[in-house]
Amino acid sequence: MDSYNQATAIIPMSLQIFDGLVDDVVNMVEMMKSLKSDKDKLSCRLCHVFDTKCPKWHYDNVKYRLIKTYRGVGTEYMDPNNFPLTIANILLRNSHIDFRVVPEKFVQRANSGDILIFRGLQGGGFPVLHRSPTIRGISEDRIVLSVSLY
Predict the structure, then answer these.
(1) How far apart are CA 33 and CA 71, in angstroms?
(2) In what order do the strands lie in the sheet with 130-131?
(3) Alpha carbon 20 to chain centroid distance?
(4) Where would I find the beta strands (DSSP E) of the chain?
(5) Which residue stretches of the chain are H helix?
(6) Most distant CA atoms of the chain, gap in Å
(7) Full residue range of the structural domain in which residue 41 is found
(8) How many Å apart are CA 77 and CA 119, to the nearest integer?
(9) Which of 10, 78, 106, 118 could form a disulfide with 128 if both were Cys (CB 3.0 to 4.6 A apart)?
(10) What per-residue string of b and e applies to 15-44 under the rule 16 or more CB within 10 Å gives b?
(11) Total domain count, the chain
(12) pLDDT tens across 36-53, in order?
């Protein structure tokens, strides 16, 4: 098979993958729209990340944020029902907590493909503390979707 025929054989598969990604992003936005009131706004961002984008534990200043990792290591988060009240109280005063060491029993790790919907500061109750996983070296990357409700 010559290079032209090889390229044309690959293109349909690439379009199928792209169409599947677009369809999934639309589905994720539709899911978040179901939480939206008339006054709320949605934003959508799909990023190809080559470094640790948000390395510090933090919560977002949104009502809710959907995070889905399509490629690479999933987001790390703390289950708000599974960490000490003192940390929860600190959360209400400071959006970026610089924990050098967090006991493993408090850390949850999403898998690639998992759909996470986190409550933010504007969502009422305790926001969900989360961060990007550490990416080491140029051979690791992530494709991450973020849909925010304000």
Answers:
(1) 24
(2) 96-97, 57-58, 130-131, 76-78, 107-109
(3) 19
(4) 42-49, 57-58, 64-71, 76-78, 96-97, 107-109, 115-119, 130-131, 142-149
(5) 3-33, 85-91
(6) 65
(7) 3-149
(8) 12
(9) 118
(10) eeeeeeeeeebeebeeebeeeeeeeeeeee
(11) 1
(12) 999 999 999 999 888 777
pLDDT in tens, 1-23: 454 444 444 445 555 667 788 89
- Is residue 74 classed exposed, middle or buried when 0-12, 13-18 and 19+ CB atoms within 10 A define those classes? buried
Nearest CA among 96, 100, 58 for reference residue 78: 58
Computed on alpha carbons and rounded to an integer, the radius of gyration of the chain in Å comes to: 18
Supply the CATH number for residue 122's domain: 2.60.120
pTM: 0.79
